[in-house]
Amino acid sequence: MKVDLEWVGLLRHGESTGNVAREAAETAGVEVIDLAERDADVPLTALGRDQAEAAGALFAGRPPDVVVTSTYRRSWDTARLAAPAGVAIVPDERLRDRELGVLDLLTTRGVRERFPEEARRKRRLGRFYYRLPGGESWADVVLRVRPLLAELSAERPGARILFCAHEMTVFALRYLLEGVPEPDLMRAAATTAVPNASLTTWERDGDGGFSMVRAQETA
């Protein structure tokens, strides 16, 4: 798609209590993640707040023109801590995390034990188009992000835009900005980690498209 922006960055939210709870549940081999809040309300941990503040130092020399953030608390709080003073923070629900439907709060084991037929559906449809029962596919997330990019391009041509969002958003942006085909995107996703508070950036190249400059950097 044609995007008239100079630079696009994606800062994944800092470590959240949900990240910690999921890791503990997967390690323990239980079926359900012990988390009281709904996904939209999960807060950052103390480490997550430190990560967000450290990431903010990257933008001090050349700040983005605007920060557009997921409306989920962990992303919004990351944006507040990372955005340089004077840079507007704009929340947009289209950047929310992928909705997991009936599989919400289930571990890998929980999904396998409670919904064995879903693994078969996922293998048949492929990861990109497989839609979780009551939830979203990767394609559904792309369909949210595409018009947001188009609007920002029309409203702020030539701008530097920083998104503060979720792991899935990195791959949605690769698909839209770089034009990575679905099979290649799925292969990349299988081998790519998107750490908390990592930064991925794209710059306009000579062909009018975008090239990835930073890839999930945390240093």
TrEMBL record:
EC nos: 5.4.2.11
GO molecular function: hydrolase activity
UniProt xrefs under SMART domains: PGAM
Highest taxon above the source species: Bacteria
CDD domains noted in UniProt: HP_PGM_like (cd07067)
InterPro entries linked: His_Pase_superF_clade-1, His_PPase_superfam, PG/BPGM_mutase_AS, Phosphogly_mut1
Entries under Pfam families matching the protein: His_Phos_1
Keywords assigned: Glycolysis, Hydrolase, Isomerase
Class of enzymatic activity (EC top level): isomerase
Entries under PANTHER family matching the protein: PHOSPHOGLYCERATE MUTASE (PTHR11931)
Family affiliation: Belongs to the phosphoglycerate mutase family. BPG-dependent PGAM subfamily.
Protein known as: phosphoglycerate mutase (2,3-diphosphoglycerate-dependent)
The organism of origin for this protein: Amycolatopsis heterodermiae
